[in-house]
């Protein structure tokens, strides 16, 4: 008893983490907003693991996309209230999905997380823009496998989408992240997976509202409208689409 009281007093006297209100990164800046999510112990740990796992990429300097990662963790947590597995199309070394896995301690969750990627860049479509984007990617399958090795329920599916979708026995999806940086491939993927999404599941669209990604923007707006809904633009440039 005395020990418990002592511990409680010590805890009260421990200096609190200073609250964070300002943030600038990922081409956005905010002031005077409560950004406690950034110092949340589980999130900060998970983000640190994701950055560590991404060291071989981006010239060793991972962009501070914590707001996007926070959005992904939030959408995945919402997925835990629904029936189904988690799916990400476009993984690379797993900045978003590693943050989710470490935040949620995914190895303890009785679901699968299917990660689809060539793990070697966007399939050639003859376009210069694709060739240019592919300069950022490299054969990263072994790194990706190592990053996700603490999570036996995470399954990496290597190959060009949408052709690899039948390789995963996904009947219901509770969380879907689409990050292929390519309008045509993203459309093929969402068209195939839409009916398997649980009602109210979130589709996180990483490159929805970026300058120079207007093709993706139009595609997702048309797709959402065809389902009687629309996409929420996030200040990060990501889009949030909810399955009605
Ligand atoms: C921007 S990266 C994904 C980043 C990742 N979401 C993260 O959190 O770090 C885009 C990825 O999409 C993959 N990709 C693009 N088109 C693809 C396709 N048709 N089939 C499989 N993978 C594809 C590329 O190989 C690349 O790794």
Features:
globular, Rossmann fold, 244 residues, alpha/beta, binds S-adenosylmethionine, two-stranded antiparallel ribbon
Would you kindly provide a written description of the structure presented here, covering whatever features stand out?
The protein has helices spanning 2-13, 36-39, 41-53, 66-79, 95-104, 128-133, 141-147, 183-193, 214-226; strands at residues 23-25, 28-30, 85-89, 113-117, 154-158, 173-178, 197-205, 232-233, 239-242. It is of the alpha/beta class and 244 residues long. The chain has a single domain (41-242), classed as Rossmann fold. The strands form 2 sheets. A 7-stranded mixed beta sheet has the order 5-4-3-6-7-9-8, with helices on both faces. The protein has a two-stranded antiparallel ribbon with strand order 1-2. The longest helix has 14 residues, at 66-79. The protein starts with a helix and ends with a strand. The structure holds S-adenosylmethionine. S-adenosylmethionine is lined by residues 90-96, 117-118, 121-123, 137, 160-161, 179-182, 185, 206.
Q: Give the tally of β-strands.
A: 9
User: Can you tell me the residue ranges where pLDDT is under 50 for at least 5 consecutive residues?
Assistant: none
Give the amount of beta strand, in percent: 15-25%
CATH topology: Rossmann fold
CATH class: Alpha Beta
Order of helices and strands: HEEHHHEHEHHEEHEHEE
Mean of residue pLDDT? 94
Q: Can you identify the CATH superfamily?
A: Vaccinia Virus protein VP39
Can you tell me the CATH architecture? 3-Layer(aba) Sandwich
Biggest sheet record:
7 strands, mixed
Helical content stands at: 25-40%
The radius of gyration computed from the alpha-carbon positions, rounded to a whole number of angstroms, is: 19 Å
Count every helix, treating DSSP H or I runs of 4 or more residues as helices.
9
Spatial order of the strands forming the largest sheet: 5-4-3-6-7-9-8
Ions, cofactors and other bound molecules: S-adenosylmethionine
């Amino acid at each position: 008893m005395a020990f418990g009281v002592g511990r409680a007093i010590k805890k009260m006297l421990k200096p609190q983490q200073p609250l964070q209100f300002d943030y600038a990164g990922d081409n956005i800046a905010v002031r005077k907003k409560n950004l406690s999510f950034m110092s949340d112990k589980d999130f900060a740990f998970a983000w640190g693991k994701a950055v560590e796992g991404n060291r071989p990429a981006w010239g060793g300097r991972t962009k501070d996309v914590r707001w996007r990662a926070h959005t992904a963790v939030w959408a995945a947590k919402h997925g835990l209230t629904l029936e189904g597995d988690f799916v990400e199309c476009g993984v690379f070394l797993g900045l978003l999905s590693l943050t989710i896995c470490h935040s949620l301690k995914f190895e303890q969750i009785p679901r699968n997380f299917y990660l689809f990627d060539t793990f070697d860049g966007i399939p050639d479509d003859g376009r210069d823009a694709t060739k240019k984007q592919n300069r950022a990617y490299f054969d990263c399958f072994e790194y990706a496998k190592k990053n996700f090795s603490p999570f036996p329920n995470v399954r990496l599916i290597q190959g060009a989408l949408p052709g690899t979708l039948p390789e995963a026995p996904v009947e219901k999806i509770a969380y879907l992240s689409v990050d292929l940086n390519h309008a045509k491939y993203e459309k093929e993927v969402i068209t195939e997976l839409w009916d398997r999404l649980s009602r109210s599941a979130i589709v996180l669209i990483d490159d929805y509202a970026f300058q120079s990604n207007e093709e993706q923007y139009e595609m997702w707006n048309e797709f959402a409208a065809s389902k009687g809904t629309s996409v929420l633009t996030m200040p990060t440039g990501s889009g949030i689409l909810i399955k009605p």
